Amino acid sequence: MELYRLIHLLAVVVWVGGMFFAYMALRPAAVEVLQPPERLRLWQRTFHRFFMWVWLAILSLLGTGMYMIHLLGGLFRAPGFVQTMMVLGLAMIVIYLYVFFVPYRRLVQHVAQQEWPKGGAALAMIRKLVAVNLTLGGVTLAVATMGWSIF
Description:
With 151 residues, this protein is mainly α. It is built from 5 helices and no strands. The longest helix has 36 residues, at 36-71. It is elongated and about 55 Å long.
């Protein structure tokens, strides 16, 4: 079980840590030094690379999470904090899927067509949804860390 927990935690670090870095460090720096066209190009290329890792992280989280739940006797026998993590994780995945298939696709299209205001609107939507997912990721980490003592 420890190997699965390690893979699970590494996937969390990639996804939640990547969102934290992008939101708290890259975004403010890009706003300070880049004009909108360059900033939008940077974000489009950054997301292209990061989202490949997020897909891998999601597959790893689902696979390891389901296996560990199986070892606990199934979802309905798992402790409440495990069920809570599952719900929060699934909500994060749904938000990510929306980001990937709607505003990110728009961002790619608008950058390719050099439609900077529309690209900025798509990026703004991504930023808001990343903030939501980052918050959910933090709550999930809190639940995971304190789970045995709370539930």
